Amino acid sequence: MRRLRLSRSLWCFICAIFAVSAQESLNLDTLYSFSGASLSSDPTFSLPQVQQLTVSVAICSTGTTSPVFLVNNNTASTSTTDIFEIPLDSGFGNWTGTTQQGGSLVVQNVGQTSFQVAASTGALVHELIPALPFLGDTTNTQALIFSPPISPIESSPPTYPNYTLPPANLSVPSPPLSPPAFSLVIAPTSSGLASGMQTACSINSTSSSGLVVSNDLWLRDKHGWRSQWLINDLTPSTNYTAYVIQDQVKLSGPVYFTTKSPSFPCPLVHSLPFCPSTSYTVPLPFPQSPASSYDSSNLPQSVSDPLLQYMTNFTTMLLMFPCGRDLYSPLQTCESCQEAYRAWLCSVSFPRCAESPSSSFSPSSPTPALTLPQSGSNARNPFLPNVSFSYQTVLPCLEVCSAADRACPNFLGIKCPTPRFNAASSYGVGFIDEGEQGVLGGGSTGVAQDRWGNVWCNPS
Ligand SMILES: *[C@@H]1O[C@H](CO)[C@@H](O)[C@H](O)[C@H]1NC(C)=O
Ligand SMILES: *[C@@H]1O[C@H](CO)[C@@H](O)[C@H](O)[C@H]1NC(C)=O
Ligand SMILES: *[C@@H]1O[C@H](CO)[C@@H](O)[C@H](O)[C@H]1NC(C)=O
Ligand SMILES: *[C@@H]1O[C@H](CO)[C@@H](O)[C@H](O)[C@H]1NC(C)=O
Ligand SMILES: *[C@@H]1O[C@H](CO)[C@@H](O)[C@H](O)[C@H]1NC(C)=O
Ligand SMILES: *[C@@H]1O[C@H](CO)[C@@H](O)[C@H](O)[C@H]1NC(C)=O
Ligand SMILES: *[C@@H]1O[C@H](CO)[C@@H](O)[C@H](O)[C@H]1NC(C)=O
Ligand SMILES: *[C@@H]1O[C@H](CO)[C@@H](O)[C@H](O)[C@H]1NC(C)=O
User: Which atom of ligand 7 is nearest to the CA of 361?
Assistant: First the structure.
């Protein structure tokens, strides 16, 4: 039996298997991995003696038996009132209680089961994180995927008289110093990953599809930093399931996505400091090899320059308002206005390519009107180079425009079309918020995209 102390942000452990004596002690804040094959039957582990103890268990793989995990927190007594079964849900279980009189953990029917166990006085070690990974977008063979956010950004707002707004070409703040260790697991949905054990060690034993081209931390929005993966070499027109594992013990997912058909023409655009949440396919010519996507290093200047100029000019106009001295709204500030305008400008400057959602998962997708075919030349952004292919787009969510309208002073004259007057020809209307009655999505989805890979409108 070997064990390693936990570092603050990283659980390390050794998968090697060791024979265990009849009563092995489990130390606090240490992750243990066991394989039933090398344990005695009904192995027993003694637990640390503390006021409040949390025991968490994760099944990594099972044999033919169904193991039962029992905690006894009164080893002096044989009374069954001090014996608790740890209920397992998709391979994961936890128990919290007091072990002031000492305690032990017994595993019955262990068979060939491999499992992990950890005892701590703080938070649970194994966890199914409620926040999901975020799908940027897919091409025929690529996917852009983000972990759930960590370290939300809290910046202090600018103040009068030195009311400074971020420059058009935002500078990316430095990422957190010791981020969790993230890993991504992708498998064809047909492999049934989501119906097996939903534990990090079980999911991690699946070999992941695709080839990681890049993996870095990216700040898409104020929710925080995310690990960002660009994956190549996936199979076209295939349903995939994805999970993110954090610090080897916490699992997030599953989310689902479908790669586009083989002839899908649009490349991915991502990692632009001036449009931090742009992370989807855009009608641009395929980038020059060896690049397989666009980021700020190879995006044509003919596209970025005008966008930065719009942003700069808008900021200049905005600062004509005595920002921070006078209020134009009880809720909004020049800073929130600039942010909302940036989101809108990016979403209309970079149209989002799409494919008819016929091949997507959708139990309840309010389909075809969502992807309006457009011709190869783009009416919205005259600075995009002409492309030789035709494509379809997902329109920006009307809420992106409404948010800028709401956040900015009136004198800037931001006007969004109303659902009554033809907004649906340029925006995705009524998917997130309730539109007027009878209008496109009718508020049916409440979100711009879901974990099944459906995208109703482009949120950014
Ligand atoms: C801990 O176990 C209980 C059942 O005993 C379960 O309801 C709960 O969701 C578990 N906690 C977490 C964070 O998974
Ligand atoms: C065992 O745990 C239960 C639940 O936390 C608690 O009520 C009980 O007092 C504990 N027994 C001992 C001997 O600490
Ligand atoms: C104004 O604020 C900016 C950014 O916070 C800072 O860099 C600059 O030094 C400040 N200028 C003055 C005059 O305080
Ligand atoms: C934006 O700033 C970064 C450095 O922060 C620079 O590398 C990049 O070229 C700039 N982008 C544009 C379009 O000016
Ligand atoms: C996950 O798998 C990789 C390679 O397959 C391995 O190196 C790593 O130790 C595994 N981690 C866990 C938590 O099982
Ligand atoms: C930005 O302002 C400059 C100077 O006022 C002007 O020449 C330029 O055309 C403006 N650019 C855009 C995109 O509005
Ligand atoms: C992907 O999943 C959807 C819904 O489950 C199904 O209709 C479709 O046929 C699948 N596509 C492929 C290529 O397996
Ligand atoms: C794209 O083609 C149209 C029509 O052929 C032309 O007017 C326009 O200038 C071209 N745009 C660019 C950016 O080359």
Answer: 4
